[in-house]
Amino acid sequence: MTLDSLRIRSFRAHKHTEVAFAPKVNVLVGANGVGKTNTLEAIHYLCLTKSFVASNDTYAVRQEAPYFELEGTFSGVRSRPMTAKLVYVPHEGKQVFVNDAPLDRLADIVGQLPVVVFSPEDHALTAEGPDERRRFLNNILSQAHPAYMNTLMKYRRARKQRNELLRQYRKKPAPPPEALLAPWTQKLVQLGSQVVARRQTFLHTFTDYLQDAYERIEAVAEEPTITYDTLADVSTDEEGNAEAIADAFRARLAEKQDHEYKRGTTLVGPQRDELVFRLNDLEVRRYASQGQHRTFAMALKLAQYFYLSDTLERHPLLLLDDAFGKLDTERTNVFMQLLQSNDIGQSFITATRSAPFAATVPFDEANHRLFQVDTKNDAARVRIAPAHADVSA
Amino acid sequence: MQFTSESVETLVEELAKLPTIGRKTAQRLTNHVLKMPRAEVEALASALVDVKDQVMQCSTCFVVTDQDPCPICSSHRRSRATICVVEESSDLLAIERTGDYNGLYHVLGGVISPLDGVGPDDLRIRELAQRIDPSFPDGPSGDGAPDAPSSDAAPDADASDTDAPEGDDAPEPVPVEEVILAVNPNVEGDTTAYYIAQLLEPFDVALTRIARGLPIGGDLEYADEATLARALEGRGAV
């Protein structure tokens, strides 16, 4: 799949930008704050209806503009080129159009235009709290299996309803009557165990992808593994069995019942899942070096790319936001070779200097293209840079 | 925004309270009303008041109707052994349009949703149980709240029983054999169905739920994944 052209209107640093991309490697070079990352964000919005940096949609609208509009033309999704358009009007919301027809639900676009991002924030994936890892899990599974996202959203709704019921009875002398709570518990268990089973089945196959990805970028023979820590003792050696998980779910809820009444909230479920990353026997989050953190996060993202690629039988778009800043020359070169190979489809890279890429990528405009991003009249400007010119900020 | 007329502002605010009507639409509607001839405005206003004054709920099935019991509940042609449970009167109309259902109905008036402050006692669930077994107790179900009016819970002389016309044209009461749950297939609908199923379990009635899956005349490739997954789950032998 390729993004052939992108039109951005009133989005962050962009006032009105139109860019035609090359089918393989696209490098955007420019100083900090000129709108390079914003260009990748615009692509991400089109694919998943949101940004890859945590931020409110309202702030994405350019100052003094009433709304923002993004439009991309994609090849390799349908038999004919497909245009996807996203419009966001503050206080009214977002609307996605595919070939000018509005989609009933925003979620319908997710998975059609797969995307994987490498960004400096990937550090949080291995170094910070479990919600980062659950978000990673949800991102892959939602793109690969749309039914998963549906189940997850329904699970969240059931949990919210159950929490509200528990909250209403928190201050009362007696806990909620069984007849009232049981229907929500039943729904919670039914949907929650489907979520856990799906995650378990996924991790069962994903570990192989991770080990393969790790080998591609790291010469040292370390074996990366993922342990799935969920409501029951489940092993990623086998595929998920929703029935067995539901039994364990019910048992855990029974154990925690008094705590739930006291706290007035649901204390068991996939919202508390954790993934433990290890290199050989070393727990990455606690003991890994900075370099190992970086390599592990990159391997995770690369594994995500290959997993989506295989599952959807389509190359996702690969967004690399300032991903090479801390990589040594040798590893940058290895990575750039990979991006030009047939294993990877189209990629978009932001950097402050073109030098590390000029040596390894032939910017001939047919397959690979170098862009210069700067500011003109207070708005971002994206232009094709002359091939082999050493563009830098 | 500032209005120059208080009555215009009041109308906009009242219209904006209606579902699916936002402030902008309310303003547009208000502008339209201002341009309408007086006779038409009066017709609209009296239609609004009439619907409140003349339309009532059937005391048996709680559908909105002009007569009590409603034409469906008082019909001799319908099977009285089957009750189809729906959320709203509009769902009843949708099923009636199929022309394929010949039983009675029961309109719940919504679904259980703690987030919206709706519990089982805010719906017509107890009344449903009483249609199956008239001895089913009144008063909040299972809550055990002390403020329940328990004085008139014991006698069998149930309000809905005495309301039923005793004339020749009143259909014979027949024991309910099947309850069809036709609530929406979302989280709240599923939970409400489960609650009702638990409540009716002690009674000798068959409980069924309408099937979920692909719409007739729909193309597989255009069906959303959740519906397809559901349809696959509920596949049957050819």
From TrEMBL, chain A:
Domain (RecF/RecN/SMC N-terminal) ranges: 3-358
Keyword Nucleus: no
An MF annotation (GO) of this entry: ATP binding
GO annotations of cellular component type: cytoplasm
InterPro entries tied to this protein: DNA-binding_RecF, P-loop_NTPase, RecF/RecN/SMC_N, RecF_2
Main location: cytoplasm
TM region(s), chain numbering: none
GO BP term (any one): DNA synthesis involved in DNA repair
Binding site for ATP: 30-37
Keywords from the named record: ATP-binding, Cytoplasm, DNA damage, DNA repair, DNA replication, DNA-binding, Nucleotide-binding, SOS response
Cellular location(s): Cytoplasm
Reported function: The RecF protein is involved in DNA metabolism; it is required for DNA replication and normal SOS inducibility. RecF binds preferentially to single-stranded, linear DNA. It also seems to bind ATP.
Family, similarity comment: Belongs to the RecF family.
Protein name, entry field: DNA replication and repair protein RecF
Organism: Longimonas halophila
Lineage, uppermost ranks: Bacteria, Pseudomonadati, Rhodothermota, Rhodothermia, Rhodothermales
TrEMBL record, chain B:
Positions annotated as zinc finger (C4-type): 58-73
Superkingdom field: Bacteria
Composition bias type Acidic residues, residue spans: 158-171
Keywords recorded for this protein, A-Z: DNA damage, DNA recombination, DNA repair, Metal-binding, Zinc, Zinc-finger
InterPro entries tied to this protein: DNA_Rcmb_RecR (IPR000093), Rcmb_RecR (IPR023627), Rcmb_RecR_Znf (IPR015967), TOPRIM_dom (IPR006171), TOPRIM_RecR (IPR034137)
GO molecular-function terms, A-Z: DNA binding; zinc ion binding
The keyword Metal-binding is assigned to this record: yes
Biased composition (Low complexity): 133-157
Gene3D superfamilies: 3.30.60.80, 3.40.1360.10, 6.10.250.240, RecR Domain 1
Residue ranges of every copy of the Toprim domain listed in the record: 81-215
Xref: PANTHER family: RECOMBINATION PROTEIN RECR
Role of this protein: May play a role in DNA repair. It seems to be involved in an RecBC-independent recombinational process of DNA repair. It may act with RecF and RecO.
Similarity annotation: Belongs to the RecR family.
Protein's recorded name: Recombination protein RecR
